UniProtKB/TrEMBL annotation:
Membrane topology: Multi-pass membrane protein
Tagged with keyword ATP-binding: no
Pfam families, per the entry: CD20 (PF04103)
Transmembrane segments: 45-68, 80-102, 114-135, 186-208
Species per Swiss-Prot/TrEMBL record: Sula dactylatra
Biased composition (Polar residues): 1-12
Region (Disordered): 1-35
Location in or out of the cell: Membrane
Keywords, alphabetical: Membrane, Transmembrane, Transmembrane helix
InterPro entries the UniProt entry points to: CD20-like (IPR007237), Sarcospan (IPR030429)
Protein name as annotated: SSPN protein
Record GO cellular component, one term: sarcolemma
Compositional bias (Basic and acidic residues): 23-35
Amino acid sequence: EKSTDSSKTQESAMKKKKKQKKIKGDPKTGQEEESHTCCGCRFPLLFALLQLALGISVTVLGFLMAGISSSLLVRDTPYWAGIIVCVVSLVGFVMLCISYQPDEKTCVQFTVKLMYFLLSALGLVACVLAVAFAAHHYLQMTKFTCDTILESCQCKLDTADPLGRTFIYQDAADCGSLTSMLNLYLLLQMVLNLIAALVCLSACFVMWKHRYQVFYVGVRFYPLTATEGQQQKV
């Protein structure tokens, strides 16, 4: 009876030691907790706030540009890029409200993460397109020669060419103020959309790194835990 009692106490002591080692020394659980702390709490909040601020700024500036002249094209007033970035930020806030589950055990958590990644990629493409359109329009305006005709501003790239294309800006009584305001707005659009594109790119990179780096690190440490268990048995 004494031998059985001693064996039971030894087994219970061994189980306690194993639990303590798992809690203290298991790198996988430590990394999951760190990834939860960094990427589950701080990461979405920081990027979602930046995306919301930049998206609102780009949207408001786009509508202000559309109010200057009714003949401006949609590509020249990139409020659509700002709306997409705002939607991405809202998905990031939704991801914050979902309770964390390790290894993505819930379907809702995986779906929201996938939506946030895909929408961030879409926002990146939209912001890059907005920067390209704004830069092209800005370079054209630096070469324009404009005249005010019948409450519209008519601009040409080459006044000596009679067959050259004429750009008409409606509802513009003063060409000087129109060109100066458009140049300023286009520069602001380039800067804001470039920053928004970098933020979306960083969000995609961190989401990819959080998903796949944790996976490979976990696989790497499985043989180490198995060898430790065999040494304890011996």
